[in-house]
Amino acid sequence: MAERGNFGSRLGIILATAGSAVGLGNVWRFPYMTGHNGGAAFILIYLGCILMLGIPGMVSEFIVGRHSQANAYRAYATLTKGKGWGLVGILGVITSTIILGFYAVVAGWCLQYLGASVFGELKGDTGYVQQYFQTFSGDPFRPALLGVVFILITHFIIVRGVQKGIERTSKLLMPLLFILLLIIVIASCSLPNAAKGIEFLLRPDFSKVSSSVFLEALGQAFFSLSLGTACLCTYASYFTKQTRLLASATQIAVLDFLIALLAGLMIFPAAFSVGVEPDSGPSLIFITLPNVFQQAFAFMPALGYVISIMFYALLVFAAQTSTISMHEIGTAFFHEELKIKRSSAAWIETVACSLIAIFCSLSVGNPDIQLLGKPLMDFCDLLTAQYMLPVGALLTSIFVGWFVSKTLVREEFTNWDTTAKSFFKVYLFCVRFVVPVCIFLILMHQFGVI
Ligand code: PHE
């Protein structure tokens, strides 16, 4: 088998991994959650979750992947004597394939809306935009096709390899995404009444903070940092021995947080300036926002037109770097475990998630396509985000905290520097106690026990 790929530079590592983290989750959930759950008060809680759970969780996945230099299954299976832990890697492969299935449908919608904004099809009142979305997403053919197209684009990036495919694409798309975001934020914040939107996003209101707000913040931190899918573990298997794991995790988490915050500063000022109360999830992007930018910049229609296009291009880029990371987990697994060519392995993953995408897409127009009483699309979202991700992250922290040799964990954490006075003790405490207990609480909450 050909030699294993590696990321070629430090910047490549940070941008590719941040590319995985920064995705639709940053744009359609974080701003809304912040606005509704106490603004700056929520941000403080979210930062706490990232510090105490997110970063230790990321470092744990990094340790498993970087040490083993192998796909998710082998990484977990070979770090200790018992092979059974390999199941956590397999769980990651399954979780990421399901997420990729429904995420690609939404990414396909973004492609459609990018085209529609270029051709000026999104102009009209709220009723029109709502109708547009219902007609489009309920169609049995076109959205499914666009979802599969998105997966195929991902496929062809993946088969080019770790450096030429994943790293190069991330180095191009991440800076572009950041520039587009900054331009829209500046334009949006300079609108009349923008201050109202900024105030909605940032004004601290501790009275809104309840225990379920804590749990929501935790769930969002996991999804947004791509934790619990073995994605970070797979990417870390391409890190070099020089990569400092704690520093990288911190930089990625900070970037992910900043971009989520900027997304809020892009959406709320524009929405409030035209008197629209934004919501969350797909309806924010596809029903509330399509005509907001045009209305807000009605005094300069060309600017409104360009900003709409930029907005959907930004979403496509954000989704693309995330789908690449989900696809890579399965590709690396099939490639190394079935000992087949990387391109054949990628095809297995592509076919598997395309099938899920097609059925998810059909379930939007035909809610009879159900599992356990929910349309397939919603079912996949719920199953992965609320159950599979936390379980994956819980098992990883138990594995690294209690089962993997402490020397190995310390060596990976400190990059073999025996004199390093690092945060190792704090990290170990978080991974052994704080992370498992908090995730256990989330799961109990999910099952309705607390
Ligand atoms: N973190 C991505 C987002 O915020 C989603 C994701 C989840 C990516 C799991 C990879 C693995 O949209």
Keywords summarizing the entry:
single chain; globular; 450 residues; 1% strand
Concise overview:
The protein has 450 residues and is mainly α. The protein has helices at residues 10-21, 24-28, 30-36, 40-68, 72-78, 86-118, 126-138, 142-158, 162-189, 194-202, 211-224, 231-236, 245-273, 282-288, 292-296, 301-337, 342-365, 376-403, 406-414, 424-446; strands spanning 370-371, 374-375.
Protein structure class: mainly alpha
How many beta-strand segments?
A: 2
Mean pLDDT: 91
| Strand percentage | under 5%
Give the names of the bound compounds. Answer: phenylalanine
What general form does the structure show? globular
Notes on the protein architecture:
- With 450 residues, this protein is mainly alpha-helical.
- It has 20 helices and two strands.
- It is 76% helix and 1% strand.
- A two-stranded antiparallel ribbon has the order 1-2.
- A hairpin with a 2-residue loop joins β1 (370-371) and β2 (374-375).
- Phenylalanine binds next to α1, α2, α6, α11 and α16.
Secondary structure elements and pairings:
Elements: H1 10-21, H2 24-28, H3 30-36, H4 40-68, H5 72-78, H6 86-118, H7 126-138, H8 142-158, H9 162-189, H10 194-202, H11 211-224, H12 231-236, H13 245-273, H14 282-288, H15 292-296, H16 301-337, H17 342-365, E1 370-371, E2 374-375, H18 376-403, H19 406-414, H20 424-446
Antiparallel strand pairs: 1-2
Helix pairs in contact: 1-9, 1-13, 1-16, 3-13, 4-5, 4-11, 4-13, 4-18, 4-19, 4-20, 5-6, 6-8, 6-16, 6-17, 6-18, 8-16, 8-17, 9-13, 9-16, 10-13, 11-20, 16-17, 17-18, 18-20
The structure holds phenylalanine (PHE).
